[in-house]
Each structure stands twice: as structure tokens, then as C-alpha cells.
Design brief:
Elements (H helix, E strand, L loop, with lengths): L3 E6 L1 H4 L7 H11 L4 E7 L3 H14 L2 E5 L10 H8 L4 E3 L1 H15 L5 H4 L3 E3 L3 E3 L8 E6 L2 E6 L3 H19 L4 E10 L3 H7 L1 H5 L5 E8 L2 E10 L2 H18 L4 E3 L5 H12 L3 E5 L5 H7 L8 E6 L3 H8 L3 H6 L5 H15 L3 E7 L14 E7 L4 E7 L4 H22 L2
Parallel strand pairs: 1-2, 1-3, 3-8, 13-14, 13-15
Antiparallel strand pairs: 4-5, 6-7, 7-8, 9-11, 9-12, 10-11, 15-16, 16-17
Helix pairs in contact: 2-7, 11-16
């Protein structure tokens, strides 16, 4: 079967200064056209490391995609290395040169320097993949039936070359298998307990159907994958297995589509033509951020009161001083009053409120770090939940937000 390797180049990737998002994006695009990624490798800006990676990945994969190291500075060694690796010599591509000059003179409006012209130099053993949005072109080489494609490390430039060239070229050179995925999201059950519940189903899966467990933020995604060359048969088989899987876990099933919790909630609100607002203390507006990260959220999200300070809780949300003094800001009574205040201030059908101790400081024996109270409600009813998290601050905030959204989801289903 055709399979791919991805090589990302740059010291910044190895020291953690830059997060490698290119590999994830490339893998998603390859998967969509039927090319599974077998290996992903990151190497520094070192000649021997890059050369060895090319040798090694050429042993494992038919398609090797490379990003990084194509700039005009001395540390960008990918292009000269590829020239030597594929026994070529540098030639100047006039189309690329004209494009680079146009970018500097008309778009960037920067002085023209000779090193910029070197961006148009390419090995004569490659096929140039024109970069319409940047200065460094992509390059495709072929060796012993394997295809090597080098692209810039700048994400939007790499993505443009992938869309305009790579994803069109690969199906012309290789017979692609069909890869079908089906993903669902569960909440309220741990990975091991979920595995126990569906172990008989998993044991009976056909050999070509794989089940993956993907835990995250207190939830677990289950993904079925089927691969083969008969598209209709593959789609029929995976649909049947996916339907069976859903019947085994109806009580913990959130959605049978691969989408995040905030999208599930947004679609639910949109379908009912209802609205929500948030009153956030410990999450600092993160719940609102998740909701509004999706286009069209203005149809169901009205706004947020970030009541980080207790005075904001009292002045804007109507939390009483008596409650704060007696029960504290992190309490069931406080979040219930925050919900009532948010409903009044934002004039929404539903409101979500959270107050907690995210850490690393601020906890006590009675209310340790990671203690969170969540409330969701409408003008008729309010539901609360107490949570305990044991992680660092950022993860505690993320877990609070996702659990609050899930509580909202269940409340809407039960009370609308």
C-alpha cells in the first residue's frame, strides 16, 4: 500500500520554540486522498541529520514530504542538500525570479538584495512547484519509484503548494486506497471503563477495521477506520460497524460527528433558536472564547461577564456580599447567583457560570486547587456541579470549560 513520511526541518522545532503544526495538517490532507502517514520525523538544521532522514524515510515510504530550510539565509541548507542528494546542479528559474521580484517590489515594498534572487535557484533534477504566495518554490524529485517533495516551512505557503500542486500530483502517480473514518464523542466515562463496555464489539471487528481511543479533557473519542480499494464496500462496512457501536453507549454518547463540544452546543442552540451567555470567574472568558471561535456563533451567543473580581460579581451579577462572606466565591450559592445575574444582564435563554481555584496557589484544605463549581440554567431552573481537577492551571481551565459546556448541553436537552 502507498504510504508517506513527513520530515520537518528546523532547530526551532527540536527546542520547542516553534510547535510543528505542519505535520498534522499535511497528515490530514494526505489521509483525505487515501495516503496514510507511516512516520513523522523532525530534524535540526544539520546536513548529516537531514541526509540520514532522507535515506531512512526512503526505505519506509513511497512519498516523502519535507518542510523547512528553504529560506535565503545561511542556515537554510535544505535546497543545496537536495541538489547534491539528487545529483543535480543549481539553475535559475526565470518564472520564479520574476515572481520573487514582483513580491519585493510590489507587495513587500522592500529593497531588492542579491540573496533574494537565490530563491529562484533550483536543482535541475527537480520539478518546480510554483509558490504563488511566497518566494521559495516547492520542489519534487523522483528516485527509485519514490517521490520526494520539499516545501517551505511557513504554514500558509506550504498549504498553498499542497493544495495547488501536491494533492493533485500524487493521485496521478500512485493508486490510492480509500480510507474511511467514523468518529464519535463520549463524555462521563473513563477510557478503561469505555473499553470494558465495548470489548466484545472490538473483538469481533473485521481485521481491516481498526478502533482507536482518543481521550481528551475528560472525554473520549472513538474512531473507526476502514481501508481498501472497493469504496462502496468500505463505506458500507464502516457504516454498519459504526451504527452498532453507537447502540452500545447511548448514555454517554455526545455526538456521532468528529467535532468539538462547543460546536455540538452551538448546533443544539441553533436548532432550537435559543441563546446563551456566560458568567466566568476562574476561566477568564475561555468558555466564551471557545464558543465564538466558530463562525456563526453570534446567532446563539450574546456575550459574557468576566467576573474575576468579587466586586464585579456583586455589581454586575448581583451576587450578595452575604453569600461571598459566608460561602465564598467558589461555592454552589455563588455560581447559582451568577447564572441568575447573567440571565438578567444578557437577556439569554440559558446562562453558564463557573468559579474555581485554578492554581498553582490559592487553595485551602477545604477548597484545594482544582476545586470548581459550575452552574447552568434558565429562568425556571438551575443545575450545579462540583468538579475537582488535579492538573496545572492551563489544563484546569480547559477542563472546566469543556465540562461546563457539556453540562449546558445536557441541561438544554432535558429542559427545552
Amino acid at each position: 500500500m502507498i504510504q508517506a513520511s513527513i520530515i520537518t526541518i528546523g532547530d526551532e522545532l527540536l527546542i520547542g520554540q516553534v510547535i510543528d503544526t505542519n505535520s498534522a495538517w499535511i497528515a490530514q490532507q494526505l489521509n483525505a486522498i487515501g495516503v496514510p502517514v507511516k512516520r513523522r520525523v523532525a530534524v535540526g538544521d544539520a546536513w548529516d541529520a537531514i541526509w540520514d532522514a532522507l535515506d531512512e524515510e526512503g526505505k519506509h515510504s513511497n512519498i516523502i514530504l519535507i518542510t523547512g530550510g528553504l529560506g535565503p539565509t545561511a542556515d537554510d541548507i535544505t535546497k543545496p542538500l537536495l541538489c547534491e542528494y539528487f545529483n543535480g546542479k543549481m539553475v535559475r528559474d526565470e518564472k520564479v525570479l520574476a515572481h520573487v521580484k514582483h513580491l519585493f517590489e510590489q507587495v513587500f515594498r522592500r529593497p531588492w538584495l542579491e540573496p533574494n534572487a537565490q530563491q529562484a535557484d533550483v536543482p535541475d533534477t527537480c520539478t518546480v512547484l510554483f509558490n504563488s504566495v511566497g518566494t521559495a518554490p516547492g520542489m519534487m524529485f523522483e528516485k527509485e519509484g519514490k517521490v520526494f517533495i520539499s516545501m517551505p516551512g511557513v504554514p500558509f505557503e506550504m498549504q498553498t503548494i499542497m493544495r495547488e500542486h501536491v494533492l493533485k500530483l500524487l493521485p496521478q502517480r500512485f493508486k490510492m486506497a480509500h480510507i474511511a473514518h467514523r468518529t464519535l464523542l463520549t463524555a462521563g466515562i473513563g477510557e478503561s471503563f469505555l473499553a470494558e463496555r465495548i470489548k466484545n464489539f472490538e473483538a469481533k471487528l473485521p481485521s481491516n477495521v481498526k478502533l482507536a481511543y482518543l481521550p481528551s479533557y475528560g472525554m473520549v473519542r472513538l474512531r473507526l477506520t476502514d481501508t481498501g480499494y472497493d469504496v462502496d464496500a468500505i463505506e458500507k462496512e464502516i457504516d454498519e460497524q459504526f451504527a452498532t457501536l453507537q447502540t452500545l453507549i447511548p448514555d454517554v454518547l455526545v455526538t456521532n460527528v468528529d467535532e468539538p463540544m462547543e460546536t455540538v452546543v452551538g448546533k443544539l442552540l441553533l436548532s432550537k433558536k435559543q441563546t446563551v451567555g456566560t458568567a466566568e470567574s476562574c476561566t477568564g472568558g475561555y468558555i466564551a472564547h471557545l464558543i465564538t471561535s466558530h463562525a456563526g456563533s453570534s446567532a446563539y451567543f450574546k456575550g459574557s461577564v468576566v467576573s474575576y473580581d468579587n466586586k464585579v460579581k456583586t455589581d454586575l451579577l448581583g451576587v450578595t456580599n452575604e453569600t461571598l462572606q459566608k460561602e465564598g466565591a467558589v461555592s454552589e450559592e455563588t455560581v447559582m447567583q451568577m447564572v441568575k445575574g447573567a440571565l438578567a444582564q444578557l437577556n439569554t435563554d440559558y446562562a453558564v457560570a463557573v468559579s474555581g481555584i485554578m492554581g498553582p496557589d490559592g487553595g485551602s484544605a477545604e477548597k484545594p486547587v482544582g476545586t470548581v463549581w459550575v452552574a447552568v440554567g434558565n429562568n425556571k431552573k438551575i443545575t450545579t456541579q462540583k468538579l475537582w481537577f488535579r492538573y496545572e492551571r492551563k489544563r484546569n481551565i480547559e477542563l472546566t470549560a469543556i465540562n461546563a459546556l457539556n453540562l449546558l448541553r445536557k441541561f438544554i436537552l432535558e429542559n427545552s
